[in-house]
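BUG: 3D viewer hangs when loading the predicted structure for this chain

Environment: internal workstation, default settings.
Expected: structure renders.
Actual: progress bar stalls at 90%.

Input used:
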Amino acid sequence: MEQQPQSPASIGLSSRVPAACAGEALIDYLSARFRYLDRAGWQSEIAAQRVLIDGKSVRADLRLRAGATLTYLRVHVEPWADLGFTIVHQDDELIVVDKPAHLPVHGDGPFVRNTLIHRLRERLGAPALHLTHRLDRETSGICVLARTASAQRSMRLQFEQGQVEKTYRAVVRGRVDSPFVCNLPIGRARQSRIALRRAAGEAIDEPQAATTRFYPEAAGPAASLLRCEPATGRTHQIRVHLEAHGTPILGDKLYGRPDEDYLAFVARVKNSGDARVGVDGEPDRHLLHASVLRCLHPATGLAVEFTAPLPPAFGDWLQRWR
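Structure tokens produced before the viewer hung:
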């Protein structure tokens, strides 16, 4: 596990001064338009030379010119992330990675540099790298990226047409002894205060058909390891269907628990708290792993398969969780 230390860095946020604001004093413009800092806060940032006009530091009483480029060098503390990803395949069209948990695939909230795509671009010197699908930050396993625009189009079309076969593994709460299928539609959770929360069955908005097949592979005292095969690709599909079945994924901070738990978690992370803290004696990440992905190679049209071994923590938690 490669850890990225938390260290301040500057992120340049730029915009053009609109014609309607020409002649305004810089401090008046910033205080009225960008209210995440108050007037005193902007005074401090200007004095620290973190506010530039056309690349130069300026005084707070500068009169703005229409079309000038305003840049704010915002001090940003990047959250911790596990940067220990492994490249399992690469060619002229595709990069396939075994992504660890605790690594977002793209920029999200406080994560700007500590993302899979940013770090891959740095490692490979490949700025034209494109995501073809996404994994949640805490979901580990196979993630496929495209090196060309044509490969990205091919992969996205395969996902849209259901040609990509994916197999996940999950450790869930409760004992599961028999295979089962969940066909409940998935939509936005109508009664939740969390915008990204989905639900299955009734009390949902914008329902979409969804099917997932589940096969038990092992069982511990109070948890089970399942092979999960989604036939559709809805947001959080496996996590939502397992919650609906009454066997939510072990370590899931959103599904299988009340809104308040997740909202408290988000508030802690936004205040520079550690996202790895688990709840109720559960692991620090939800135990969902993308273990196999099968698709057609964008260049050859031949079937290819990519695999990622199950993290050892899955077996450990399966046996020890009560």
